[in-house]
Design a protein that fits this description.
alpha+beta, single chain, 21% helix, 198 residues, elongated
Length: 198
């Protein structure tokens, strides 16, 4: 009968708890990825398609002409990372379709970071994607406003409408026969809604 000694594996040292990733770390790590950072998890965002892309481009083009002509600020597009801290998720980051940041908030000569915008935009534009549910869209709008973005604009290519949300304006729903103005954040800006969908 064997009386050999049983050799136990060495005890493993306890691992320190992992530190949650911050919004800024997420932005640097995932710059260029089609993702958002929600509830501590990196969430892939479906590619929205050509109609969405055209609406984003046209809005940015019209907005850019006005902002550049009046030397007002920066325009960011292509799912730019915007930090939108909520009570339950202080590191939340969304990818804004289009957003405007005035030179008052981010000086003209300021260095633009690689990752997350360092300041809340004056307004954010979300173009509803085919994969977006209304719950997802309205959650984003509420989160943007709660994070200090004064105005959130929702463009819906399907219904050909533009909705404007903000504490100062409540909700304005505009159809293709009307003009979009944003006097609260961009006085003088005006664009016929129909042109955004042509």
């Amino acid at each position: 009968m064997s009386t050999g000694t049983t050799i136990l594996p060495p005890a493993q040292a306890p691992q320190p708890p992992s530190t949650p990733m911050t919004a800024e770390e997420f932005g640097l790590k995932h710059a260029g990825d089609h993702v958002e950072f929600i509830d501590g998890k990196v969430k892939e965002i479906p590619m929205p398609g050509s109609r969405h892309g055209k609406a984003c481009n046209w809005f940015a083009f019209v907005l850019g002409q006005f902002v550049q002509a009046n030397d007002l600020g920066h325009i960011f597009i292509n799912d730019t990372f915007v930090k939108v801290p909520t009570q339950s998720d202080p590191q939340r980051v969304y990818g804004a379709d289009v957003c405007f940041v005035s030179y008052d908030r981010l000086p003209k000569q300021a260095e633009i970071p690689v990752g997350v915008l360092p300041i809340s935009p004056n307004f954010v534009v979300e173009v509803r994607s085919p994969s977006d549910t209304w719950t997802q869209v309205f959650t984003k709008i509420v989160d943007y406003l709660g994070a200090g973005v004064p105005i959130a604009v929702l463009v819906d290519p399907t219904t050909r409408t533009v909705s404007v949300y903000g504490d100062a304006v409540g909700q304005r729903v505009l159809n293709a026969n009307e003009k979009l103005t944003l006097p609260e954040v961009l006085p003088g800006f005006s664009v016929p809604i129909a042109t955004l969908f042509t």
